[in-house]
Amino acid sequence: MTTAYITHPSFLLHDMGSYHPECPERLTAIGDQLAATGLDQRLDHYTAPPATREQLARVHGGEYLDLIDAASPQEGLHYLDPDTALCPHSVTAARHAAGAAVKAVDLVMSGDYANAFCAVRPPGHHAERSRAMGFCVFNNVAVAAAHALAAHGLSRVAIVDFDVHHGNGTEEIFADDPRVVMVGTFQYPLYPYSGVEPLGPNMHNVPLAPGSGGEALRAAVQEHWLPALDAHRPQLVLVSAGFDAHRDDPLAGLEFEDEDYAWVTAQLVDVARRHAGGRLVSSLEGGYALDALGRSAARHVQVLLEG
Ligand SMILES: [Zn+2]
Question: Which residues of the chain have pLDDT under 50?
Answer without folding.
Answer: none
